[in-house]
Amino acid sequence: MFIPMILTAGVMAVTGSVFGIIAGLRKKPFYVRLDRIRRTLPDLDCGVCGYPRCTDYAEAVTGGEAGPLGCIPGGPRTAHAIGDALEINAQPAEAAIAAVHCRGGHREAPHRANYEGMVDCRAALLLDNSTKACIDGCLGFLSCVRECPFGALSINEGGVALVDRRKCNGCGACVSACPRHLISIIPDVHKIFLACNNHDEGDWVSSCCSVGCTSCGECVDITPSGAITMNDHLPALDYRTPGENFLAAAYRCPSKCFVDLVKARPRANIDTSCNGCGECALSCPVPGAITGFPDKRHVVRKELCIGCGRCLAVCSAHAVSLWGSLGYEGAPKMAVRTPRLR
Questions:
Q1: Which helix (H) or strand (E) holds 264?
Q2: What range does the domain containing 33 cover?
Q3: What is the torsional sign of CA 197, 202, 205, 209?
Q4: Residue 207 included in any domain
Q5: What's the pTM?
Q6: Does 133 lie in the same domain as 75?
Q7: 323 to each of 208, 246, 279, 335, how far by Cα in Å?
Q8: How far is residue 132's CA from residue 209's CA, in Å, rounded to a whole number?
Q9: Residue 82 near residue 68, CB atoms below 8 Å
Q10: Which of 83, 125, 169, 339 has the most CB atoms less than 10 A away?
């Protein structure tokens, strides 16, 4: 009587052990992948991925509940490493940066009254839509600064939010923090954006801010690619348009409400292979920047050239090149060898 019971218990124990071993073997790849992904993440616990901790995100990715591109601070290297751990091809998104669509500081945009209260943009809006004459401008009460987990935002001396492009990775945490929706994420390869969010037009905008967009449309007229269209009295820039850098629009804007993050741009040069067709001068958006007579070599006035590259695109003789390099604020200075003129 006892022997069958002992045999039954033994069979059950062996069967349970076998199933336990099989289950453990099945879970082993899961924990191996989890450990690889966890070690790949930057361990910032910033929450940009939608999870409070990097460990939580690693578990979600390993379990198939989250995608491999959620860690924006980690950048392309982290995305590729997660893809390798999951044995998939992870294509990271294009590098991006936050842009504040306002540059109307204390001198450019007057105030209707003085604000005394909680240092928070949402709180300031509750008080008669804040004190700034421009009802669409930056309030400067630190809401976006506090939300940024990487310290990439600050308030400048004019009281307007400022992005440090060396620290910003385009995570987007600041976008939802701004109650006036002044911040957007743009491709990092594009260094020009519109710094105005006022949807009025004409003299009313000028009375509120000296650097506000008056909806004149000159930026649209000077952009034949169609990459700029007017939307609710504001220019909308389509960064997906091939070959468009918006330099001509920034130059032509009478209110100077475009921001160019590049402090020094290359200048065009025309060499001796120029056949004098004059197409470069016709394409140039800056009057007098390219001069010359028909069938003669044309010349670029470097002090007027904005480096847009339109002359480079239309030159059939391939006589145009851009000299110099992009310069960024805060970049280390280095000696540059100037090429000999031809």
A1: strand 262-264
A2: 17-86
A3: positive
A4: yes
A5: 0.75
A6: no
A7: 40, 19, 20, 15
A8: 10
A9: yes
A10: 169
